[in-house]
Amino acid sequence: MLYQSDALSVIQHEHGIAEIRFDSAGSVNKFDQCTLVSFDQALQCLQGMSELSGVIVSHNKADFMVGADITEFLPKFALPDNELSEWLIKANDIFNRLEDLNVPTITAMRGFALGGGCECALASDYRIATSSLVIGLPEVKLGIMPGFGGSVRLPRLIGADNALLWITTGKQFHAQAALAVGVLDAVVDHEHLQHAALDMLRAAIAGKLDWQARRQQKKSPLTLSAVEAGMCFATANAMVAAKAGHHYPAPITAVKAIEKAAGLARDEALMVENKHFVKLAKTNVARSLVGIFLNDQNLKQQAKKIAKQGKDVQHLAVLGAGIMGGGIAYQGASNQLTTVMKDINPGALKLGMREANKLLNKQLERGRIDGQTLGETLINIIPSLHYGSLSNADVVIEAVVEHPKVKAQVLAETEQHVSQDCVLASNTSTIPISLLSRSLTNPERFCGMHFFNPVHRMPLVEVIRGDQTSEETINTVVALASKMGKSAVVVNDCPGFFVNRVLFPYFFGFTYLIAKGVDFAQIDKVMEGQFGWPMGPAYLLDVVGIDTAHHAGEVMAQGYPTRMAKQQTDCIDIFYQAQRFGQKNGEGFYHYGRDKNGLFVKEIASSAYDLLAQHYPVDAVIEDEEIIDYLMIPMVNEVLHCLDEGIIDCPAQADIALVYGLGFPPFRGGAIAWLQHLGLVEFIAKADALSHLGSLYQVPESLRQKAIAGEIYY
After folding, report:
1. In the chain, is it the N or the C terminus that has fewer CB atoms within a 10 Å radius of its CB?
2. Domain 3-hydroxyacyl-CoA dehydrogenase C-terminal spans what residues (predicted)?
């Protein structure tokens, strides 16, 4: 053993070959500060070896390197620019040390090699992997760009066009795709990886492979003519700007950095990367996206701990074969759960099976599954008209019509036909779980399990604890959500739970603007284009369904009469009475037709304007910023009320629930992250300026106290 630490070891092979083997004391290899220091010391040790002939970089764990430890490096983003820059220079010196060894080097990998792990591999002369390898530079998804030389080495290795695709999309690639573009030099079977790496290294040592030329290529300027460079980067700039938009600066910044560094040698090019990385690290976008990543990791860790204490679910049943029921059944079956889909209507069962079949065929068309998987998944869904089919169910999810009496009756009947340890869950979106539990003999085995539509796309599930729900029930349902590929947030019971409860104040803010005479299309344009929501409030109401929103609004008004009871008829009521239900019947705030693929096409509906003009003034002049205030202040205030009441545990869970459940703009990090970026004092001033609109705009006292004390949420 030439060197050993908690992060790695250096092993001596025959004929002067040394192997740096990453093997962190933790569950995965990642570039934390300890690993970087150990890597540097190991390389310095090798530099001092007179008999060194070649170096292999490898690993003991399942994955080569999952990337940098963002939890450890995030505080460095807050350093002054010059200090962050100096830290990056020192980190890059380590990778340069590997690249500058006076002997050939090769990296042997399997599993994940992401971010800093990919950049480490790029610093070696050759790369070899098994077919299990997943490699990439996903930094733009965190609002930053490669900072350990990835934007310098990758274009010189595989060409600017390919490198720009890798870096600006942040996609991960499998071994064969990496081999095809030249990131890898070979792909071998797992059992042959070590021998193949040694054979390739010996060939380089013997002069059969020109490793010096390979290395020089990565250290030299890009070989692009002026015309080629102009076309390459102009195209990349246009494509990235169109796809990423102005809310996400990292992809376009990476293009600019690669373009500026193209004519420079490695060391000068690394300084260009350094400068652009520092700029991105200081943005609120980076803070927000890193925050979401950390919140997601924390949520998954908590779910994993909770799931260990829950019952392992093998048999699932879904009551109701509508869009939601069919989607839930599909989600369970596609994750290898035997899933009964029960309904009282044979036609509904056919519709539910058709929905599952449609989703599976889309997966097949996109190459994500094969025909065998499609068939096996469909076999996992068992349509049924009888309660007897529920006898083996570990969990039954009720997804019938959103009506308290209907749901209570179905749940009570179901309880009579399931085993004593079966858990019942309701997919209700607004009805309190404690209310529904009154119909049950064993309310401790009942909770809410609120999926979001469309089920197969939306990652969030709200798990709602009723006033008598046992912890074992919560643990089992969290375990089920994880098994179904969903992120579960546990919330306490209240009307609307968390996500819908904070959504309706946002809708009420929209109705206030409409009553003021503001154009709904302008509101949508501001909230989509400027704030970043995937859909503006008018469009979202059409998609949710005006009838659904009208019903849910009544539930919210009963639950929170002080803040959410209506003082007069609003635009949702007006559209509901006119039977303009949105996409359901083609007429809402917008008119909806279908294109040749059967997808909805949204058009401005003059009839909607005519209807509104009968009740409200028209063409009110308002600033974009005021539109944002009208909608976002009520939502943030309600999130704060939920935190104060203990409906949701912490700001991190609140923010991740809004991003995953509502599509809250990820670059803003969630409602509490947005509040903090805006500034507590600034937010309070904005809310106070609109307080005449009612209690939805009056900030909780807890926020005022936090602002006075100079405290923050994160």
Report:
1. N
2. 496-592
- What CA–CA distances, in Å, run from 422 to 199, 291, 472? 58, 37, 11
Please say if the pLDDT value at position 537 is more than 90.
yes
Average pLDDT over residues 584-611: 93
Residue 315 to residue 332: CA distance in whole angstroms: 9
Judge whether 287 lies within some domain: no
Specify the DSSP element, H or E, that contains 130. strand 126-130
Q: Check if the beta carbon of residue 112 is closer than 8 Å to that of residue 65.
A: yes
Q: Give CA–CA dist 473/476, Å, rounded.
A: 5
Q: Is the pLDDT score of 225 beyond 90?
A: no
Rounded CA-CA distance 487/357 in Å is 24
Is residue 171 exposed (0-12), middle (13-18) or buried (19+ Cβ within 10 Å)? middle
pLDDT at residue 223 in the model: 87
Contacts of 677-683 spanning 24+ positions with Cβ under 8 A? 677/284, 677/287, 677/288, 680/706, 680/707, 680/712, 681/707, 683/633, 683/636
| DSSP conformation class of 222 | P
The answer to whether residues 404 and 452 belong to one domain is yes
Distance CA 629, CA 635 (A): 10
Q: Is 12 helix (H, G, I), strand (E, B) or coil?
A: strand
What is the Cα–Cα distance from 258 to 276, expressed in whole angstroms? Answer: 10
- Closest listed residue to residue 540, CA positions, set 565, 520, 554, 563: 520
Domain contains 296? no
Which residues are known to be catalytic? Answer: 450
Q: Which residues lie closer than 8 Å to 682 by C-beta, 6 or more apart? A: none
Residues in Cβ contact with 522 at an 8 Å cutoff, skipping those fewer than 6 apart: 622, 627
pLDDT in tens, 180-192: 999 999 999 999 9
Q: Is pLDDT at 284 greater than 90 in this prediction?
A: yes
Rounded to an integer, what distance in angstroms lies between the CA atom of residue 73 and that of residue 78?
10
CB neighbours (10 Å) of residue 350?
A: 13
* CATH code for position 704: 1.10.1040.50
For the domain that residue 60 is a member of, what is the CATH number?
3.90.226.10
The C-alpha atoms of residue 464 and residue 442 are separated, in whole angstroms, by 16
Q: What's the pLDDT score for residue 714?
A: 86
Residues 46 and 22 in one domain: yes
Which residue stretches of 565-649 are H helix?
571-577, 606-613, 624-645
- Concatenated DSSP letters for 15-31? GGEEEEEE--SSSS--B
Residues sharing a CB contact under 8 Å with residue 622, sequence separation 6 or more, in sequence order: 513, 516, 518, 522
| pTM flag (> 0.85) | yes
CA dist 329 and 331 (Å) reads 5
d(CA 146, CA 289) in angstroms, rounded, equals 15
55: Cα separation from own chain's centroid: 38
Look at residue 441 and give its three-state secondary structure.
Answer: coil
Show Cβ contacts of residue 638 under 8 Å, excluding neighbours closer than 6 positions.
501, 502, 505, 563, 696
- How far apart CA 275 and CA 215 sit, in angstroms, is 24
Peptide bond into 104 cis (omega under 30): no
Closest listed residue to residue 523, CA positions, set 441, 629, 601, 390: 629
Q: Does 311 have pLDDT greater than 90?
A: no
Residues in the chain, overall count: 714
Asked if residue 302 belongs to a domain, the reply is no
